[in-house]
Amino acid sequence: STAGKPIRCKAAVCRVAGAPLVMEEVTVAPPQAHEARIRIVCTSLCQSDVTFWKLKDFPGITPRILGHEAIGIVESVGAEVTELTEGDTVIPVFLPDCGECSDCLSKKSNLCSKLPFKVSPWMPRDGTSRFTDLDGNTIHHFLSVSSFSEYTVVDIAHLTKIDLDGDVQMNRACLLSCGISTGVGAAWRTADVEEGTTVVIFGLGSIGLAVAEGARIRGAARIIGIDMKPEKFDVGQLEDFRVQMVALSCLECIELQVINEMTEGGADYCFECVGLPSLMEEAYACCRKGWGKTIVLGVARPMSEMKLECFEVLHSGKILTGSLFGGLKPKSDIPMLLKRYMDRDLELDKFVTHELDFKEINTAFDLLIEGKSLRCVMWM
Ligand code: CXF
Ligand code: ZN
């Protein structure tokens, strides 16, 4: 057995911000207390990997192992781990769920206060790294997951055990690790979309389409999708998601009036799924006075700000909120979403546009950056 010993394996290391990842041999230390070492089976690429890969300044840092949407098998566990054992199938999540703090115990929040979420290059509990390169130099972590490696070490607060009873396919369950859960959760939990309502989604990547999927299941009457590249969809693809497309030639071109007319006075729910402050402002402007709710999902550049007119906030009665991981609690909600998928209620298949070998990870980056993929699942 490899338990208790360092493991040498392949990882795609980000050596230089924005440059192709380098496939190299790394050493993965054994898990410490409250940690598990995981053999990654599948990992997919999320836009946040690309966003942080490009960052030259903090929270950008190199060398680092990116990747946070994945599924794997527990290889070994550290001290004081009772909830997981070798061989368990687990889904890592960037958002912790300690299950003990007052926030984890409250049904109103998914923001753990025992291990508060932050974009840190270290393990969340002791602030050190489990990765070294062959010269013995430290390699940093990413979002407490670092799945672009055959093996990784993850804190148990960031791991959800799943049951593989009903023949769950790894290349589907993997999607519940970040993007699809985030979108569906935002529609179900954060917004609580009701039957017969109108939803406007800004940005039709995987997150936007997952919001649409959540809204469809809830019985939304109209789902309007706004994107600058309508050509990225096949005929029928948007129909599957029940999305009615509004194409934009530029991001500043949203005609408030058009949305206002289409929705007869504003949408019940607006979702910003891009990460642009100006688009967040537009989304807020497009939701209905009195009860409209705008949910921000997009990851904007660090320190960027949005503008709201105070008078408008006071008079409009609208709600503006952000949502991390769709407001879901990883440990209880991922199994719930998986069951909905197994019951053929929730769609996951149509999000997987590409499957590649892990070795071809840089191609996965190209596909996502060029807007050619939704989810590209890589097999280790
Ligand atoms: C994001 C959410 C905001 C911080 C970075 C990660 N989630 C997943 O992609
Ligand atoms: Zn993500």
UniProtKB/TrEMBL annotation:
InterPro entries: ADH-like_C, ADH-like_N, ADH_Zn_CS, GroES-like_sf, NAD(P)-bd_dom_sf. Its cofactor is Zn(2+). GO terms for molecular function: alcohol dehydrogenase (NAD+) activity; S-(hydroxymethyl)glutathione dehydrogenase [NAD(P)+] activity; zinc ion binding. Residues 33-162 form the Alcohol dehydrogenase-like N-terminal domain. It comes from the Eukaryota. Transmembrane segments: none annotated. One of its GO terms (cellular component) is cytosol. Keywords: Metal-binding, NAD, Oxidoreductase, Zinc. It is an enzyme of class 1 (oxidoreductase). One of its GO terms (biological process) is formaldehyde catabolic process. Its EC number is 1.1.1.1. It catalyses: a primary alcohol + NAD(+) = an aldehyde + NADH + H(+); a secondary alcohol + NAD(+) = a ketone + NADH + H(+). Residues 207-338 form the Alcohol dehydrogenase-like C-terminal domain. Pfam families: ADH_N (PF08240), ADH_zinc_N (PF00107). Coiled coil: none annotated. Homodimer. Belongs to the zinc-containing alcohol dehydrogenase family. Class-III subfamily. This is alcohol dehydrogenase. It comes from Linum tenue. The lineage of its organism: Eukaryota, Viridiplantae, Streptophyta, Embryophyta, Tracheophyta.
